[in-house]
């Protein structure tokens, strides 16, 4: 057995405060459980019909847990800042760890993200696609620039947004400098990145590539319902308040 296999095998995971009978089943139930909506009526407007997910509150008889521990133990990763290499390293580490702990349980990524490094965003997306667990996405606030790419890149049927969320897509931004040959190569790389991302959006949304290219030519903003219609998400989470 390799050292990597030993490391994975040594991982253990338990949630003693969450009895097995209360563990949520299905992507919609997981999303609403993670939001802690036991006292609120919740309706889901989505492309496909389904029952509104209702999740029990998480109890911690051992005392209060810090926020990051509660989220992680409930298989939730929160991205609330521009994504750089450090943020990508943290998110990828969490994804790989959660996949090693339970390869069959879903993972949720909460996004309030204005964008960030294209390379870092693509690294996270590659990890989401590589690991066995399904990775759902939920937008709070904003998912802009390449943050929208992460939102749309979640498991189909598990991509959600809150009713007041805003989603924005556009072509990648870049800055060039250095010798003329360096600038030429940087521009070529930026053009290739744009073509790659446009193709990804076309696959995520089932929209024609030409339409995606038209939308990403400049900043294109969507409300939650517009993002649902375009295919960036699969549902809008709403409460009666």
TrEMBL record:
One Pfam family per UniProt: CLP_protease
Reactions mediated catalytically: Hydrolysis of proteins to small peptides in the presence of ATP and magnesium. alpha-casein is the usual test substrate. In the absence of ATP, only oligopeptides shorter than five residues are hydrolyzed (such as succinyl-Leu-Tyr-|-NHMec, and Leu-Tyr-Leu-|-Tyr-Trp, in which cleavage of the -Tyr-|-Leu- and -Tyr-|-Trp bonds also occurs)
Active-site annotation: 170
A single GO BP: protein quality control for misfolded or incompletely synthesized proteins
Keywords for this protein: Hydrolase, Protease, Serine protease
SUPFAM superfamilies found in the cross-reference section: ClpP/crotonase (SSF52096)
Keyword Transport carried by entry: no
GO molecular function: ATP-dependent peptidase activity; ATPase binding; serine-type endopeptidase activity
GO CC annotation, single: endopeptidase Clp complex
Source organism, top-level taxon: Eukaryota
Membrane-spanning parts: none
InterPro entries for this protein: ClpP (IPR001907), ClpP/crotonase-like_dom_sf (IPR029045), ClpP/TepA (IPR023562), ClpP_His_AS (IPR033135)
CDD domains given in the database record: S14_ClpP_2 (cd07017)
Family named by the database record: Belongs to the peptidase S14 family.
HAMAP family recorded: ClpP
Protein name: ATP-dependent Clp protease proteolytic subunit
Species classification: Eukaryota, Viridiplantae, Streptophyta, Embryophyta, Tracheophyta
């Amino acid at each position: 057995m390799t050292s990597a296999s030993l490391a994975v095998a040594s991982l253990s995971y338990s949630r003693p405060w969450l009895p097995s009978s209360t563990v949520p089943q299905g992507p919609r139930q997981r999303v609403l459980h993670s939001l802690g909506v036991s006292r609120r009526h919740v309706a889901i407007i989505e492309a496909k019909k389904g029952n509104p997910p209702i999740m029990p509150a998480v109890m911690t008889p051992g005392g209060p847990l810090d926020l990051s521990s509660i989220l992680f133990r409930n298989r939730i990763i929160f991205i609330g800042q521009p994504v750089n290499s450090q943020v990508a390293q943290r998110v990828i580490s969490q994804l790989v760890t959660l996949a090693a702990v339970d390869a069959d349980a879903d993972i949720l990524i909460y996004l309030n993200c204005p964008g960030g490094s294209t390379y870092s965003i693509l690294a996270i997306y590659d990890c989401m696609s590589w690991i066995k667990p399904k990775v759902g996405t939920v937008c709070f606030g904003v998912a802009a620039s390449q943050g929208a790419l992460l939102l749309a890149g979640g498991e189909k049927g598990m991509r959600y947004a809150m009713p007041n969320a805003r989603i924005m897509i556009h072509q990648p931004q870049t800055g060039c400098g250095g010798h003329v040959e360096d600038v030429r190569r940087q521009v070529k790389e930026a053009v290739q990145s744009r073509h790659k991302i446009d193709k990804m959006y076309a696959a995520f949304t089932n929209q024609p590539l030409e339409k995606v290219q038209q939308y990403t030519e400049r900043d294109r903003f969507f409300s939650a319902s517009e993002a649902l219609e375009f295919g960036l998400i699969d549902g809008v989470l709403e409460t009666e308040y």
